[in-house]
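Record pair follows.
FIRST:
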Amino acid sequence: MNAPVNTTAPVLEVQDLTIALPPGGDRSTAVKNVSFSVGRGETLCLVGESGSGKSVIAQGVMGLLPKTLPVTTGRILLQGEDITHAPLSRLRELRATRMSMIFQEPMTALNPVMTCGDQIDEVLREHTPLSAEERRQKVLSIIGEVLLPEPERMVSSYPHQLSGGQRQRIMIAMALVLDPVLLIADEPTTALDVTTQAQILKLVLDLQQRHGTGVLFITHDLGVVADIANRVAVLRLGDLVEMGPRDEVLKTPQHNYTRMLMASVPTLNTQKRAQDADAPVVLRVKGLVKTYSDKSWFGKHRLVHAAKDVNLEIRRGQTLGIVGESGSGKSTVARCVVRLIDPTAGSVMLGNDEIATLGASALRPLRQRVQIVFQDPYRSLNPRRTVGQALVEGPMNYGLSNDAAQAKARELLGLVRMDVSAMDRYPHQFSGGQRQRICIARALMMEPELLIADEAVSALDVSVQAQVLRLFEEIRERLKIAMLFITHDLRVASQVCDALAVMSEGEVVEYGPAHQVFGNPQHAYTQALFAAAPGKNFAFGTRPGA
C-alpha cells in the first residue's frame, strides 16, 4: 500500500544528480550535481545545447538510462518516493500512472503495426481493471480531449495515416490517459510547423491546468520557453549554470552562457536590405504546377495539388525565403526547381535555360549549377566515406582532377570555418552543426549559381543555428550566390531573407520584400502564421557587455 500523496510537495525532486559517461569520452559525466524540482501544475523548462544533459536527465527520471550511463550519486524523488534505483517492475507500475513522457519524434515512438486506438488501449489494459467497453470509451474520451477530429476514425488509423501534429496528439493522449502527476516532454514540437506547434503547446498547457500535472519541458527553442515556462533551468555540458523564474532568466540572464543563448535567438524584426535591381535573374519560376494522383483501394482517383500556379524570381546575390506550414508545398517547389521531381506544368528557367521539361540525360550538365542542403545533416553524408571523399566526389565527376578537387575542398573547409584535418575524418566524428557546415561546403564545391537550403537549420541548437545563419549570409555576400531558403521558422526567415513567399495549400498567398511582409502582412493566412510564432512579443536578454 503506497503512502498518502502530499499535494503541496513537489511532484519531482532531483537532488545532486550525477550520471556517468562511458570512459574515453570528452568528459566523465553526462550531468553533474544537478538539483531542481517541479511543482504540481508548474512547467519547468530545461534548456541548453545538444550534449548539455537535458535528455539524459529525462531518461534518468523515467528509468530509461542504458547501463552505460549509471546514476553514480544523487536521488530522484517522485512524490517523495525515491526511484533512483527502483527495480524495473516498480518503474513499470509508475510509468503512465504517475509519470509519462512525450518523445520528440512520434513516428519512431509509435508502433507502426498497431492502430492508434490499440496503442492507447494497451496503456489501459496494463494498468487498469477496466472492461473492454470501458477502455474503448476512455480511449474515445481522451482522443476528444486532445482535440483530434473524428475519434472513431482516429482509433482505427495507423500512425502513418496521420499528420505529424496528429501523431503528436496521439502521443499526448497516451501520456495523459491515466492522469499522471508528472509529464516529461522531450522536444515535442521541434519537427512541427509554427501553427501546429502553437496548437500542441496550448493543448499541453490546457491539459496541465485541467489535471494539475507538473511538466518538465525540454527544448532548445527559447521562443517556446518564453511562451510556456514558469521557471527555467539552463544546462551547459552537464552543469546547471542558472535557474530561476522565466522572466529573470530570459530577460536578465546572469551567467555568460545563458547570455550567449539569449543573444543567439533571432528576432522577428527585419530591416530593408539593399538590392541590386540590375543583377541578373538566376531563377524564374512561372505557373509551376505539381499534381499527384492518389488511387484508393476502391479504384477511385484523387488529385492532390502540391503546387498550384507558383511564380517566383531570384536574382544573383539575393535570398528568397519560402515559409508556410507542413504540406503547404514549400519542399515540393524546391524539388521541382532542382528537378528531383518532375513538374506537372509550368516553367523553371535557370538563367536562360528552361529545365522544367528536360530529360534525365540533358539535366546532367545543369546539375552542378543548382545544389541543395537538406534538413538532416546526419542522413545527408555517407557514414562510410571520409569528409574529404564526400567533398571531392562531385567536382571529380565533372572532370576536375583529384589534386585540384583536394585543394578546393581545403579552401572551402576554411570558408565554412572547419579545420582541414576534417578531410580525413568520418561524419560520426562531428557534431550536428559541424556536419551541416560540411554539407554546405560540399554544395559549394560545385560552384552553383543557385543554392537551396531546405529547413537546413531547423534541427540545430539556437547558438549553432546562429553560427550557420551567419555563415549563409557571409557566403551569399562573398560569392554573390542566389539562395532559395525554405523554413517554417519565421525568426530564421526574418534574419536571412531579402524577399519572402508565403505558401498555403500549394499556393503562394503573399509575396514581396521581406521587410514589407513581416512589417505589414496582408493575407489572413500570413497574419495567422506570424501570430503563432512562439515568443513573438518577448524581449530576450542581450549579449554580454551590450
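SECOND:
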Amino acid sequence: MNDVLKVDRRDAKLALAHIYIAFIALALGGLAGLLQTLVRSGKFNLPANISYYTILTTHGVLLGLVLTTFFIIGFQFAAVSRTTGAFSDRNRFWGWIGFWLMTIGTAVTAFFILIGEASVLYTFYAPLQAHPGFYLGLTLVVVGSWISGFVLFVHYARWKKANPGQVGPLLSFMAVVNMVLWLICSLGVAATVLIQLLPWSLGLVDQINVLVSRTLFWYFGHPLVYFWLLPAYMVWYAIIPKVIGGKMFSDSLARLSFILFLLFSIPVGFHHQLMEPGIDPFWKYVQVVLTFMVVIPSLMTAFAMFATFEMYGRSKGAAGLFGWLRKLPWGDARFFAPFVGMLFFIPAGAGGLVNASHQLDQVVHNTIWVTGHFHLTLATTVVLTFFGAAYWLIPHLSGRIMTRAMNRLAIIQTIVWVVGMSFMSGAMHFAGLLGAPRRSAFSTYANSPQALEWIPYQIAQAVGGTILFIGIILVLVIVTNLAFFAPKGETEFPVAEVAEQAERTPLVFENWKLWIGIAIILILIAYTIPFIDMIQNAPPGSKGYKLW
C-alpha cells in the first residue's frame, strides 16, 4: 500500500484552522480551570461577582467539547489526506462549511456562558436551564461536526471505489470508525437539545421529562470519552512505532480493537446513572456488563503497544525482561508525551472500573473523585497524546521544523504537566473518598463538619491547577512557535509500517453494514425497553409534550 507522503497544502489549511481553534479553547478553558481550583481552595474569591458556576461551565465546555472536537477533526482531516490522498474541491468546501458552523456555534455558546446566561455546567442537566442561544450554539457545533464526518466518509468511499479489494489505510479506517461512533452517539445529545431543552428554554413547553433528558445525555456522554480516546489510539497504534523507528505489531489487532470500541462504547450510558431512580436495575446491570466489555480492546491496545516497544528494543540489542525500555527515544517529545499519557491511562482505567461498578460507585458517585478520574483520562492520557501529535503535525502542516530548543521545552512541558496533574488529580481522588462534593464551590460547604478534612486536598488541587496552567502556557508557546516562527523546512508525517511477521488484514473489518448493524442492535437491546418505561411511567408533572 503506497501512502501519500505529504498532506495537500489546501487540506493542511483546513486542518490547521481546526487546530488553532482547539488551542485557543485550551488557553481560555485552562484559565477558567485555574480560577476554579483557586476558588475551591477557599483562599480566593472571583472578582466582579463572577459566578463560580460560570467558570465551571466555561472550563468544561471549552476543554471537554471544543478543544477535543476541533483537534480531533483537524487531526483526522490531515490523517485521511495523508493516507488516501487530497480531498476533492467539493469535499474540502464542505469541510470548511463544517468548520465555520462549529466555530460560530462555539462563539455563540461561549458568549452566553460568559455573560452568565448559561451556568449549567458541562452536563447542562435539566432542571438547570440556559439561554436558548447556548443550546443553539451547541447544536451548530454538533451539526458542523456531522458535516465534517460525512466529508471523511465520502472521501474514504471514493478511495475504496478506486482501490477495489484492498484494505483501506489504517489511519483512514480509524478516522472513519471514530466518526461513525461520534455520529451515532451525538444523536442522543442532539435529540435532548432540539426536542426537549431548546423548546423548554424558549417557553414553548412548561415541562420536560428530566430522566429522559439525562439518559439521552449519557447515551452521548460516555461514548464521547471514546471519541476523545480513539484519536489518541490512532497516534499510539499507527504513528508512535514510526516515531521510535520501529514497526507496528499488528494491523489486524488495531482494527479489531477499534471495531470493539464501536460496538461496546455506546450502549453503556446507564453506568453514569446507577444512583438514579426510574431505571430498572436489570437494565443497569446489562449496561454495566457491556461497559466492562470495553476493557478487552483496552487491554489489547496495551499488549500491542508494549509488544511494539519490546520488538523495537530487541532489534536494537536489548536484553533482559525490561532492557528494551532503555532503547526507547526518551529525549524525543513526540514519543515522550504520548508515552507518559499511556502510563497515566493505567490508573485512569482502574478508576473507570470503580466508576462502572454498581457497589463501588456508591462510594464515589457525585464526589470529586469522578472529576479526578476525568482529569486522568481526558486531561492527561488524551491531552498529552494530542500535545505529542501536535509537535510533528503542526510543523508538517505549516511547512516548518521543530528545533532542539522547542523539543527540550516540550519535554519540560510534559514533566510540568505530570507534576501538576499528580497534585491535582491525586488530591481529587483522596478528597472524593472522604466525600468531598463534585461540583460545589467552597462557600457552599465551608461550614460542614467534613470541610476541615477536605481543605488540605483543596489546597493541593489549587497547587496542581497552578502548575498545570504553567504547562498550558508552555505548550501554547511551543505551538505558536511551530505554527508561525520555527525555521522553514520539511517535517515528516510519520505513518508506521506493519511488522513482516504480522498476519494479513482480513477485509471483514471493513464490512460496515455488519459492524454498524451490530452496534445498532446492541443499542436497541440496551435502551428500547428502558425508554418506554421512562415515558410511560414518568412521575406527575415531569411529562413534556408528545412522547416526551
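COMMENT: The chain has one domain: 9-536.
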